[in-house]
Amino acid sequence: QVQLVESGGGLVQAGGSLRLSCAASGRTFSRYAMGWFRQVPGKEREFVGRITWSDGSTYYADSVKGRCTISRDNAKNTVYLQMNSLKPEDTAVYYCAADPTGYGYEVWGQGTQVTVSS
After folding, report:
1. How are beta strands 78-83 and 68-73 bridged, if at all?
2. Which of 12, 76, 107, 109 stands 20 to 30 A from 93 (CA)?
């Protein structure tokens, strides 16, 4: 059973930074890409960005482009989401997810809360 565990969330003032981590554990599985999403209560889950495991190529939602960077550490089976210049509207529960084949996200973490105060 593969598990994804996010960490690094917390309370930060507007303009501040946070780095979220997503550690994969369990049996080895193929990973085409890893993605980050966020969700505010009462709203749909929103795509934040993704990284292709093989070559590290990244893609970001317009709402975070230029403020967020996704990276990976192959040796640690960990993906990171560096968020800078945070805004109150970035407040959400952030989830990482694994896309093993390129056809969709199949494994999700439990989420970590990010709260940005104005």
Report:
1. antiparallel
2. 76
